[in-house]
Amino acid sequence: MSVNLNKGQQISLSKSDGGELTAVRMGLGWQAAQRKGFLAKLAGPREIDLDASALLFAGGQLADVVFFQHLVSDDGSVRHLGDNLTGGAGAGGDDEVVLVDLARVPVHVDQIVFTVNSFTGQTFAEVQNAFCRLVDETNGQELARYTLSGGGTATAQIMAKLHRAGRGWELKAIGEPASGRTFQDLLPVISGHL
């Protein structure tokens, strides 16, 4: 059963049978919002390029990053399945996917932060049906979903982070709007959540 996450909410990532998760998928989906006005409606929605990134931290320091220009972490535990430049057609599926093999994440990596940014610079007022979700990759069960609220002047969002908790992992929804076209622009905001 999926949990709709609210800003700051934290959940333990354990399976219902008590076992630990071994692989998760972070999915990002979105559509361009319809333009307002008669002529704008004839032109249709603008193409919007949102980018999903996974930033791996060790002791508060950035150790690696997986994004559209670096699709696999140096150790191979995190993989981005490719850049989607326009978003979805409204089917509700994942437009960009980041896979995390939790069992292979090096022990020194203690946090993985997921971000979304508008590479083409549109604000989230121009995006609709945007979501981030975490799925158990072994069985396809959706564990948690975070909905990007429409509107606002933000061009980026610090979505959530996975962090080590004992022998397993926990997910914390951050949901902080930010400004920036790339993950590098978001580092000052991310540092407050480590």
Automatic annotation (TrEMBL):
Signal peptide: none annotated. Gene3D superfamilies: sav2460 like domains. Residues 1-180 form the TerD domain. Pfam families: TerD. This is TerD family protein. It comes from Streptomyces doudnae.
